[in-house]
Amino acid sequence: MISECRAQASPTKDQDISCRSSSPEVSNSESRDTGAVLAIESSTVRAGVALMCGETVVVELTAEKPRIHSTWLLPAVLEAMKLGDVGPRDILCLVVSEGPGSFTGLRIGFATAQGLAVAWSKPVMPVSSFLVLSAGISMAGWKGGALLAASSSKDSAITALYLTDGRGGARELLEARDRSLECFLDEGAQRIPEFQAESGSPAKVLCLGDAAQALLEEWVRRRENSGQAWAKQFILVPADPYLALPRPGVLARIGRALFLQGKAVPPEKALPRYYRKSPARRSVTESRVSFERGAWEHGRDTRAGRDH
């Protein structure tokens, strides 16, 4: 079931970070430098586990298949630790992708990370899935804009705009939130001048995330049918499939950097970010509203009948 195993999987070195940590599990600077970080990625169809020892990702396992997260992740964690020759005592913290992403995937990822963290008395470091995506393309050398889209619904998606420096750094220009694709393209177009070439030629903007195809289709539709000037200000380019979804190795790198800054939390305080209600909860809410409206209208009709 494990589709990929890589050694020495790090693209570039992390950004400069503070090596001070407030985590009680880390006893000295040497253990911080050499200890292992275990990362669990479950926000999309790509499930993944990575083990980072010191500054090197030594194991990265991924499987890209729907609805396997609940049965695949824990065996993959054990396999990664076996391949990396580490035990629970060597782990500094558990890193987990916090979203945006699949409701079910995020719940499974957090349940796995929290369960292990409690059993091993380790902290948890949640990391934004969008930060993982943008840092991944930046590590691979992409310098410029990136439109990120995830968890598309009938008429919207969780979207954000990032600017990357091609050296692993990424900065959020438009915050991640649930918005229509049309609105997102309009908002993004207003920020294009910040990274457009001085020559005035259209800026190439990378598009990635599990809703990237829907965003690309909306951009093509707007470009062909809209007379707006922004439609020709930039060219939307799909990311390479390898980097189009979050990679656990990148998640491990970012998580380790944040852990060393003292940002990890106890397992019970680690929570996913959903950005919108789950389909089941929306359905319950809509049913309740429909029921209450029907009850109110029935009561109104009954009162009107009595009045006559």
- By CATH, the architecture of the largest domain is named 2-Layer Sandwich
Helix-strand makeup class: alpha/beta
- Total count of domains: 2
Main-sheet strand order equals 1-4-3-2-5-6
Number of helices: 9
Mean pLDDT: 84
What CATH calls the topology of the largest domain is: Nucleotidyltransferase, domain 5
Termini separation comes to 71 Å
The CATH superfamily of the largest domain is: ATPase, nucleotide binding domain
Largest sheet: 6 strands, mixed
In the predicted model, the low-confidence regions spanning at least 5 consecutive residues are: 1-28, 282-291
Describe this structure in words.
The protein is an alpha/beta fold and 308 residues long. It has two domains: 166 residues, ATPase, nucleotide binding domain (Nucleotidyltransferase, domain 5, 2-Layer Sandwich); 101 residues, Nucleotidyltransferase, domain 5. The protein contains nine helices and eleven strands. The strands form two sheets. The protein has a six-stranded mixed beta sheet, sandwiched between helices. The protein has a five-stranded mixed beta sheet with strand order 9-8-7-10-11. A hairpin with a 4-residue loop joins strand 8 and strand 9. Helix 2 crosses helix 3. The longest helix is centred in the C-terminal third of the chain and has 29 residues. It is globular, with a radius of gyration of 22 Å. It starts with a strand and ends with a helix. The N terminus is likely disordered.
